[in-house]
Amino acid sequence: MQTHRVLPHDISNSDLILIAAIAPLTPWTRTHQKEACIPPLITLTFLTKYPTELINIHSAFHAGAFQQVLDFDTSSFSSSNALPARILKYRSQIALGKSKEVAAELSSEKTPDLVAVKLLAEYETGKDVLEVAKKLAAQHGQENLAVQLCVGIILERAGETEAALELLSKHQGSLDAYVYTL
To answer: Any idea what the Cα angle at residue 178 is, between residues 173 and 179, rounded to 5°?
Structure first.
């Protein structure tokens, strides 16, 4: 793995550990790519997008500590971080095999972020949601990270890797989306 040493001095050791922990955890890998390389701009953007209150839950999610994510008390999170934390909790439930529960809980959601999570949960239960997911990506995938990630995962698992990579390439400095494209 290549590293870049152009990081500002105010980044803590835990931030650097988080970057090192996330980089190798990709759900799919292009077979011809042997090294992961995180451009400094994406790394710095990631660190500014995830304030301290999200760092621990986000790090736990990418480390595969899904039960720990569910156990996080997010009641004191700011309103701007409440939705990303909720999405991480739902995705953790899906990873723990509770897709039916997530799909049922989100059945009446209209927010694109949560609709994307619901589609991922439904896909995991065997429901054919590919066309609905593609429509959601066409409508909201340009700037919505949750839509990009969840629909990208659906597309890749459905064997449409190139479409998944194209969708994920629309991210705006997201380390999550970047890592999924490795």
So the answer is: 140
Q: Which two tokens stand for residue 56?
A: 């621990």
User: Tokens in use for 168?
Assistant: 């994920």
Q: What domain range is 59 assigned to?
A: 13-180
In a domain, 25, yes or no: yes
The predicted structure's pLDDT at residue 34: 37
| Number of separate domains in the chain | 1
Closest CA to 91 of 136, 152, 10, 49: 152
Q: Given a cut of 50, is residue 102 above it in pLDDT? A: yes
3-state helix, strand, coil in the chain (%, to 5): 60, 0, 35
pLDDT value for 46:
44
CA 55 to each of CA 22, 72, 101, 178: distance values in angstroms, whole numbers, following the listed order: 12, 12, 26, 17
Both tokens of 149, joined, read 């990630």
Q: Is 8 part of a structural domain of the chain?
A: no
Q: What CATH number should be reported for the domain holding residue 90?
A: 1.25.40.10
